[in-house]
Specification:
The protein is α+β, with helices and mostly antiparallel strands. The protein contains 19 helices and 29 strands. The structure holds ligand MTE, hypoxanthine and dioxothiomolybdenum(VI) ion (MOS). Dioxothiomolybdenum(VI) ion (MOS) binds next to loops. Hypoxanthine binds next to α9.
Length: 776
């Protein structure tokens, strides 16, 4: 039975080593299969959404006869065609109908779907609806909504610690301000899409571009009025999600499934880019009012802030998003006395949703604005003020939500970056440059990030997996996470390869499907590899334990004498190939499949009390950016960015670096050129790449040095002591905003904080320059 084999030193794709994304070649050669590439069965129909052309109105009548009569049309779907619940609210608040019946709540709201033989026919017919409405006054932004007495879409959160009144009373300095932080479109390369194939009885299979297959499954079942076991949702990969497919796919999955069951034919729905941008939610923009007290050294004594957010017409995920803004309103800084409140405002706009950082970035920008304000008021380098306020030892280690910061590595990380980027030397040079140059001004800023890892909804922090080892020794890996480009499947495969000590090429990565792993959480909150890596490891260990038990008994050795070597197994003194062991185990009727499970330990959160340990740990990072600004036009360029980011012991450094680079650029885009603009009538006028400017390759920093903190190890027992990487580096983009601020401040000799709102478009930069120069 045993064959002698020579074992290599190390498996291919070992953890902590670079391994390219499993689909990298398929991505760049166009062979990666997305939802729209799945071969369409004969008879496939196409759906398209018909949307409102008013912003807020009572619906008197909706006449779809011209739509029905249009060429190629099979029929229409309205609220009346929904056999189950007309609701796709992801939090069970019952405030989000698939199609409204009596009220239009935003411009571009989906009102019905038309189903036709071709997508083109459906799209043309969708324009033909006739409506009678009674227009109502609208409120588009959070300030207008507050003024109009609009409700909160969900309960506000309050975080409080210390004695805020006393903190303000005893302070040497105090200042107040308001910061507007814009939203952001996800601009995933692949837009929303769902493709439903009806089956017998109640069954339906939905291929859906989603970060949250279990929720799509649950929603389709809820809307069809069938149990979840009738609905299967599959996703092999997304062409990007960035939070935009955590809940917003529900509409498309449900419309495709409703139509597929109604006409008993496969139905696909794919909005064009303009409709994707107008009909689906984005990052929340915020209006943040802050009041901060501090001493002569710049140390903060008390903070009171309100965070009002444009949530849109329904709650969607606005509750947890606005909560997370408060959880990050401290960023890396200790506030001795603090009160933070959220105001999740209903508005007559599309319902805003998850987007990388999930509200956290908006909180962090507010913290950094306060630091800037303090620095300019005291005439100090903002970095000095940052350092003076870092979390520290006992007495300075409690967050506004009463979680103790025990793993703080920022001082070291920021110190290292300050040196490697030569912050001090370059700042001196820049100050001199600005004195010598009249129109081109430079700025530099070094900003830190601390980001809490875990879903704040504690029950979300669980994951499952399913591993089969086939009798030929090949391995089939499934877990509840979804692949959206971040490389989750590669990392989880590395974990499993490491557990069995086999080459990663032996492991088949398969689509995510609700049939294999049930009740999964969204792949979100950066937790994909933390949760699914652990669940996969659990399954692998179960199978390994059975193999060890079998080998010990079969070959008469003790279990401690069975060891997994690279692509081989040692049993006593003999070494055999992995395949040979599996074959023998199969012949002896050993169970070679296992379902794994994981839940994050040691976390708890009492929202009503505003206290707990919502986060298992923190991920840290820092970036230093230098910009040059043409003060005659407001145009600017990022000259150089240096980043040092903490991913614990990286599962895969090259993928993690990719995440850090991409997140920085996306964060920079959010704060600089990506502007969402609604006209007074409530129409989003920036609804295509022609008017909405994401960063181009040419916008990347001219010099871009990205490093991972090699020495960092997660103190918690995470998968291989790694840390989550997906969202935290998004906030590294803030160094660009602060560097722009310094360049602008230079025109008035740094006497005043420029109070740049985000996005700091060239237009806003120019206006700030003009204001400081006293021109307006
Ligand atoms: N990277 C790519 N390429 N595409 C994406 O859509 N989404 C981000 C981040 N990185 C995203 C990405 C967001 S919002 C999250 S929450 C995480 O990836 C989710 O994946 P993870 O938990 O496996 O890191
Ligand atoms: N982060 C991201 N997505 C989420 C969260 C969170 O904390 N909670 C619910 N969905
Ligand atoms: Mo990411 S916003 O948590 O999908």
């Amino acid at each position: 039975m045993k064959d002698q084999i020579t074992s290599r030193d190390e498996i291919e794709g070992a953890v902590h080593h670079d391994l390219r994304h499993d689909s990298a070649i398929k991505h760049v050669t166009g062979r990666a299969e997305y939802c729209d590439d799945i071969a369409e069965p004969v008879g496939t129909l196409h759906a398209y959404l018909g949307v409102s052309n008013v912003t807020h109105a009572a619906i008197r009548s909706l006449d779809l006869s011209a739509v029905r009569d249009a060429p190629g049309v099979i029929g229409v779907l309205t609220a009346a065609d929904i056999p189950g619940a007309n609701d796709i609210s992801p939090t069970g608040r019952n405030d989000e109908p698939v199609f409204p019946t009596d009220r239009i709540e935003f411009h571009g709201q989906p009102l019905f779907a038309v189903v036709a033989e071709t997508r083109d026919a459906a799209r043309r017919a969708a324009e033909l609806a006739q409506m009678e409405i009674e227009a109502l006054p609208h409120a588009l932004d959070p300030v207008a909504a507050i003024d109009a007495g609009y409700p909160h879409v969900t309960d506000p959160l309050k975080l409080e610690r210390g004695d805020v009144a006393a903190g303000f009373a005893g302070a040497a300095h105090r200042l107040q301000g308001r910061l507007n932080v814009g939203g952001q479109d996800h601009m995933y390369l692949e837009g929303h899409i769902s493709f439903a194939i009806p089956g017998e009885d109640d069954d339906v299979v939905v291929h859906c571009s989603t970060q949250h297959p279990s929720e799509a499954q649950h929603m389709v079942a809820h809307v069809l009025g069938v149990p979840s076991n009738a609905v299967t949702v599959n996703v092999r990969r997304m062409g990007g999600g960035f939070g935009g497919k955590e809940s917003q796919m529900n509409l498309f999955a449900c419309v495709a499934a409703l139509a597929a069951k109604k006409w008993n034919r496969p139905v696909k729905i794919r909005p064009d880019r303009d409709q994707d941008m107008t009909a689906t939610g984005k990052r929340h923009d915020f209006v943040i009012d802050y009041d901060v007290a501090f001493d002569d050294s710049g140390r903060i004594q008390a903070v009171e802030s309100q965070f009002a957010a444009r949530c849109g017409w329904s709650s969607d995920l606005s509750g947890p998003v606005t909560d997370r803004a408060l959880f990050h309103a401290d960023n890396a800084y200790f506030y001795p006395h603090v009160r933070l409140t959220s105001r999740p405002m209903k508005t007559n706009t599309v319902s805003n949703t998850a987007f990388r950082g999930f509200g956290g970035p908006q909180g962090v920008v507010a913290a950094e604005r306060m630091i800037e304000e303090i620095a300019y008021r005291l005439g100090k380098d903002p970095l000095e003020v940052r350092k003076a306020n870092f979390y520290g030892d006992e007495g300075r280690d409690l967050t506004p939500y009463h979680q103790q910061v025990t793993d703080n590595i920022l001082e070291r990380l920021v110190g290292e970056l300050e040196t490697s980027a030569d912050y001090q030397g370059r700042r001196k040079d820049i100050l001199a440059f600005n004195t010598a140059n009249r129109f081109i001004k430079r700025g530099i800023a070094l900003t830190p990030v601390k980001f809490g890892i875990s879903f704040t909804a504690t029950h979300y922090n669980q994951a499952g997996s399913l591993i089969h080892v086939y009798s030929d020794g090949s391995i089939h890996l499934n877990h509840g996470g979804t692949e959206m480009g971040q490389g989750l499947n590669t990392k989880v495969a590395q974990v499993v390869a490491d557990a069995f000590q086999v080459d990663v090429s032996r492991i088949k990565i398969t689509k995510t499907t609700t049939e294999k792993v049930p009740n999964t959480s969204a792949t979100a909150a950066s937790s994909g590899s933390d949760l699914n890596g652990m669940a996969a490891l659990d399954a692998a260990q179960q199978i390994k334990a059975r193999l060890v038990g079998f080998a010990a008994e079969h070959w008469g050795v003790s279990e401690t004498e069975v060891a997994f070597l690279p692509n081989a197994v040692r049993v006593g003194t003999e070494v055999m190939g992995f395949d040979a062991l599996i074959k023998a185990a199969y012949m002896a009727r050993v169970h070679l499949s296992a379902a794994g499970f994981y839940k994050t330990p040691d976390i708890h959160w009492d929202r009503a009390a505003g206290k707990g340990r919502p986060f298992y740990y923190y991920a840290y990072g820092a970036s230093c950016s230098e910009v040059s600004v043409d003060t005659l036009s407001g145009e600017y360029k990022v000259e150089r960015t240096d980043i040092l980011h903490d991913v614990g012991r990286s599962l895969n450094p090259v993928l993690d670096r990719g995440q850090v680079e991409g997140a920085f650029i996306q964060g920079m885009g959010w704060l600089t050129t990506e502007e969402l603009w609604w006209d007074d009538a409530g129409r989003l006028r920036t609804h295509a790449p022609s008017t909405y400017k994401i960063p181009l390759a040419s916008d990347a920093p001219r010099i871009f040095n990205v490093d991972l903190a090699q020495w960092s190890v997660n103190p918690e027992r995470t998968i291989k002591r790694s840390k989550a990487v997906g969202e935290p580096p998004f906030m590294l983009g803030i160094s660009v905003l602060e560097a722009l601020s310094m360049a602008v401040a230079s025109v008035a000799d740094y006497r005043e904080c420029p109070r740049l709102d985000a996005p700091a478009t060239p237009e806003r930069v120019l206006m700030a320059v003009e204001r400081l120069r006293g021109a307006v």
